[in-house]
Amino acid sequence: MRHRMTGRVATFGISALAGLAMGAIAGSAQAADDTIKVGILHSLSGTMAISETTLKDVMLMLIDEQNKKGGVLGKKLEAVVVDPASNWPLFAEKARELLTKDKVAAVFGCWTSVSRKSVLPVFEELNGLLFYPVQYEGEESSRNVFYTGAAPNQQAIPAVDYLMSKEKVQRWVLAGTDYVYPRTTNKILEAYLKGKGVKDEDIKINYTPFGHSDWQSIVADIKKFGSAGKKTAVVSTINGDANVPFYKELGNQGIKAQDIPVVAFSVGEEELAGIDTKPLLGHLAAWNYFQSVDTPINAEFIKNWKAFTKNDKRVTNDPMEAHYIGFNMWVKAVEAAGTVAPDAVIDSMIGVSVPNLTGGYSAMLPNHHITKPVLIGEVQENGQFETVSKTPGLVPGDEWSDFLPDSKDLISDWRKPLSCGNFNVKTGKCGGKGS
Amino acid sequence: MRRAFRWLLAACVAIATTSAALAADLRPLVQTMGSGGYAGTEKALNQLSEAGDPAAVPVIEALQAGDLYVRKADGLVVIARKAGAGFALTDPLSGAVVGEAASGAIDKIKINNALRRSISATLGALTLMSPDPATRRSAAEAVFKSRDANALDTLNTAIAKEKDERIRRVMEQARAAVILTAGASEGDTQTAIATLTARGDRDALALLSMIAASGATDALKTAAAGAVAAVEQKLMFWGALQNLWYGLSLGSVLLLAAIGLAVTFGVMGVINMAHGEMVMIGAYTTFLVQQGLRTYAPGLTDLSILLALPAAFLVSGGVGVIIERSVIRWLYGRPLETLLATWGLSLALQQAVRSLFGPTNREVSAPSWMSGAFELGGLTITYGRLWIVVFAFAVFAALLVALKRTWFGLSIRAVTQNRPMANAMGIRTARVDALTFGLGSGIAGLAGVALSQIDNVSPNLGQSYIIDSFMVVVFGGVGNLWGTLVGALALGSLNKFLEPYAGAVLGKILVLIFIILFIQRRPRGLFALKGRAVEA
Q: Where in the sequence is the signal peptide annotated (chain B) (predicted)?
């Protein structure tokens, strides 16, 4: 009897809870009339939480600031935060939830390429808008995605050029984590280097698993490769957690930046926060933004960020700037279109130009990539980067690499009448290789 | 007497005026260091190097340390060091006090990698005659690296004057490197080749292969080729030893991670998926201890790792006891439920730590006695790894003693071998269960202290070790500590020997395949327990 009673009580409890939840949903549905919803699709748990949580916070800050300025189209913005938990299929599920249930006007999210590939079909099917803020391997252009991070020609190629011209590097180690971004980037770099006359035996490619922590033999191998009498550099596409033990081992084995410099594409201020940077002095990173960039607009951004997070030690990094640019572009495009309807916004996005944090203006190109300056920085003792080289102008993002045989004839232009993400200029047809 | 004093005084004045005169010559050069960006600084540095005056050494050292600034008001180049809120300025050549400045009033002279290289080359050439032996030695090493032909004359003088045998050897090697790069008479080159063959490391090999490829005469080419072969053979031998060391060091990390599991899984039979999280908790305890010491006792920071050991053992052990009392004791004899429950627990612990400490990595800095490396013959051994190897074996020995020689160990063995009988003999089995699980978890916490030195202190720390730990315990033989030791070292060495040939990714796959095949043949692992206890 007692069991049955508890059972009944439980049923009652559940239905009461369900009722409450329904009420909450109904409440938010009512509120939807005078707000515009913005989806934030970043992992707050799991492996990628280390990088993505910061991006969620910066989006909340940007939305908050925009609301203080009066919102968009006279309506307040409302952030809808979901947690895909570093689980790639869950990204697609959460994206669908944001677009169909919450009916968000735009989504800002994803970090890894595999998560972007996983949500891509959802955004194309439901005609949503995704702003992707991370440097990536290129070879993709979708009508529904705006790529505000760097394409390979906005990060990898200029970094290699810098090492070749300024450091006179002749021998290259391309070290990366074993997944799509490093593999594609290294393929592009290998083709580029060979085009510049670098011989086969002067290029060494090395892949390691995610989260690799025992770097002793690989670092020793790099040391060995670097002692062949030619100036050697390491181009690192090592991702996430594996970087800390990698740099620790470099420091321990006494590889100094003046002997074998390491240029990294995935190491920013946030990643350096977990390492003692004294042994890393002078190692390089290539990005489109550094926290140390000395412009009034950046100083303001950093001040707001520290105030918003109530933490004086929080650092800023490149993907945060990408969200800053992407969000402001979206606001401008929505105001120009006068509506949040996806088709209208997609059309008015192209050509929108907003200030970036390095003192210039970034514009959205017809291929849904943006123009950015490329900065090369050296690690300083305080965990920041000192800019040692900056491209004189802005570099337009090139989605289909000119150095890969499969993609060198492809272009993307989402303006009418072409409206094609992979137009083959040789055959004159839309629909080449790639997606 | 008085006369002698006057002479001395006069001599002093004369020396002072000549050095002042030299300093006056350097002054315009030093002034130009602050203008023209990296290229301007580099040009000024080259001119200082050509002037060859040791008076420039403090200036260049300040530039290297990032203490050289330009005063914005008048463009004066000064050494600025932090003093209170602002900076105290001194003259870079004379060391005289210039004044003070706020941080906004001076600009740092920035250096990049190319400049850093020039700085060490210049400093090397200028400090070859330094009275300090350590400075002379590093100067000689710097010249060996830079192979700067301008330094040859100074080098010859320095070699003639040098008393210390070992420093002279390095200087001679540096001279050999300069000669091989710049070119010299055949006899000199032959001597240089011999000197470098005796050095016999990778740097020497690089120079020798250069001569073997593009030497001036055939005789030189053959001599260099012979030298290259000799050095390569030597390096190959050391390379194999180095691999063995890497294997031992990876093995000891595996041993540390697995040894706690050998207690909870091996001895108790609990499939504890939250084992990795105990390691993680140990690492975070280390972080907290270090933070605490930094705030309250900055002098003791170097000892924080040692102080963290008991703390991590107690914290992880305590969490282990709580887990056993609250979750696991209801699930004895139900392996599937234990697996699911502890896996859920591991996720919960990860997220709890993430909410508490944030998702980003926490920095646990290495104490001075654990950073850096030393050379042993042709081996490079890093202190951090060396201490971890020592520590792993110490923990293993301590656990062995605890299980074999103490009353507590006896109770553990009694309970695992025959629970009803142990109970009948008056052993409180429930309490022994809790303490055993606590012991295993505490040892995992100790592993966390060591791992904080080589891996990320992040909520995901434990995840990367749980698979490896199970692999080691199963491979070594469940319930056998020696098996865990041998298993860990064997897998570590196997991995490190495969890595250079197969790459890290394929290497790991091959190890897994090997274990699968091995377990097919010997399901109970390397050292299988025999007897009735196994069948029960």
A: 1-23
* Joined tokens for residue A122: 């959802």
In a domain, A200, yes or no: yes
The answer as to whether A245 is a domain residue is yes
Interface of B with A in 6-35 (CB under 8 A): none
H/E segment holding residue B350: helix B335-357
Q: HEC profile for B483-515?
A: HHHHHHHHHHHHHHHHHHHHHHHHHHHHHHHHH
Instruction: Dump pLDDT digits (tens) for B47-63.
Output: 888 877 888 888 888 88
The pLDDT of residue B42 is 87
Amino acid at B294: R
Give DSSP secondary structure letters for A329-342: HHHHHHHHHTS--H
Residue of B202, B351, B457 lying closest to A224 (CB–CB)? B202
Pick the residue of B456, B469, B506 with the most A CBs within 10 A to test the interface with A by mutation: B456
Exposure class string for A2-30: b at 16+ Cβ within 10 A, else e: eeeeeeeeeeeeeeeeeeeeeeeeeeeee
Distance CA B160, CA B299 (A): 45
Give the residue-averaged pLDDT of A392-402: 92
Could you state, in order of their start, the residue ranges of all structural domains in chain B?
A: 22-115, 243-535
pLDDT in tens, B73-98: 888 888 888 887 788 888 888 888 88
Long-range contacts of A305-310 (CB under 8 A, 24+ apart): A305/A58, A305/A61, A308/A57, A308/A60, A308/A61, A308/A64, A309/A57, A309/A61
If contacts are CB pairs under 8 Å, which of residues 100-129 in chain B contact chain A?
A: 110, 112-114, 116-117, 120
CATH architecture designation of domain B243-535: Orthogonal Bundle (1.10)
Q: ipTM, 2 decimals?
A: 0.80
Using alpha carbons, list the distances in angstroms from residue B204 to A227, B145, B155, B238, B370.
9, 10, 18, 15, 29
Chain A touched by B133 (CB under 8 Å): no
CATH number for the domain that contains residue A181? 3.40.50.2300
B355: its two tokens: 């909410």
Give the count of domains, chain A.
1
Q: Which domain holds residue A179?
A: 156-264
| CB pair distance less than 8 Å for B455 and A388 | no
